[in-house]
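Re: the multi-chain job from yesterday

Posting the exact lines I submitted so nobody has to dig through the queue logs.
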Amino acid sequence: MTLQQEQQATTLIVRAQQGDKVAYADLLQLLAATARRYARNRLGDVPWIDDVAQETLLSVHAARHTYDSTRPFAPWFYAIVSTRMIDVIRKERRVSSREVGTDVLPETGRGGARPHEDSASVDPRRVQSALEALPPRQREIVRAIKLREEPVKQISERLGMSESAVKVTAHRGYRALRRLLGREDR
Amino acid sequence: MNTDDLISELTSRVEPVRVLPPPATRFLRWSALAVVSALAAVAVFGVRPHLSNFLREPDFIATALLAFGTAALAGVAALVLVIPGAERSGLLRTATATLAIVWTIVAVAAVIRTGHGLSGAADWPICFVRVMAIAAVPGFVLFRMLRAAAPLRLSWTSALATTAPLATGALAIQFVCPIDNPAHALLGHFGPVLVLGLVGLLMARRLLRVAGL
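And the result, structure tokens for all chains:
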């Protein structure tokens, strides 16, 4: 954040604290861009730069009454953005340690069996009944991802869940299926 | 939701807000309440016999100063920590932790010096409960003050916010409790600060999590 931007942000947040919607919109635009730049400088081009920006804006909104205009704006803002960035990194690490990428090739069978040999060894009716045994939400998400090849984003919007929650539920569903089909060793 | 939609959403919700007073002002308000609570406790439970004699004893004075210092520093540090960017360095937190450690060492050393361990401790649960009772109102108010700001570093803030009122309680109980046994003081006076400080640390998210932060 340049000195000029800091002065601009100070003016805008003081007006926003008085309820000025236009000033607030300008402030949030400025802060979103600054948060993205800050995160990109530290993390590189990761896909969740926007998450950092959005989490920062939510925190700025919740904390806007704590800004004292007699103090510099930058330390106040960077304290928020750095905390939110750490939170997002932790969340992403947690999710990626549990999720199963849907863009990787399916596992081949034991001892290097080819995919068609592996699938031939599983009775489709057993798969179907194992699928039926899953809890409704897990079943729906596994079907959507694996059978209908629906994008995770679309599923998350349809079911009103976050994308991370969809991935975690799908992962649990795959694990439950493996257990039901007696293939936990894979 | 993309960022532009979020900005529109937040902008539509913006209303005038009352800017929070500086941490120093808020600390003065809180410490006034803590002093009133401590004095009320002394008035309700009664001053210990021969207090004037103890006021000249180095051990009594050292413990009182450690409790006072820990309470004051923990209160200031917690209130500073909930204002984003207000903490210039970790000095306040370090000083609070150092005082609490020194207090622990002094309390444990006193028990070791007697050579009886904790076996001589009697009636300490009464003081344990009294310390919690003295700390209840200042603790509740302090947590409300912290939640009204922007707690970002939850664990530190919660540990400090639990320590401050309990140290106030431990200070007040010194002027009330007639038992001089160091084991009693360790368990009944200092015990609540240590135990509930840890509870505060572990329950930080539950105690201080504010929507949007």
